[in-house]
Amino acid sequence: MKGLAFNSSPRKNNGATDMVLNKFLEGIKDAGGDFEKIYLNDKKINQCRGCFGCWTKTPGKCVFQNDDMPEILKKLEEADIIIYATPLYHFNMTSYMKIMIEKTLPLLEPFLIKDKELTTHPRRNKKKKAKWVIISVCGFPEIEHFQALDLCFKQNARAHGAEIIGKIYRPSSEVLKSGAPLFKAYLKNCYLAGKEVIENGKIKEETQRKLYKDFIMPKFLFRFMANRFWKKQIQ
Ligand SMILES: Cc1cc2nc3c(=O)[nH]c(=O)nc-3n(C[C@H](O)[C@H](O)[C@H](O)COP(=O)(O)O)c2cc1C
Question: Whole-structure pTM over 0.90, yes or no?
Answer without folding.
Answer: yes
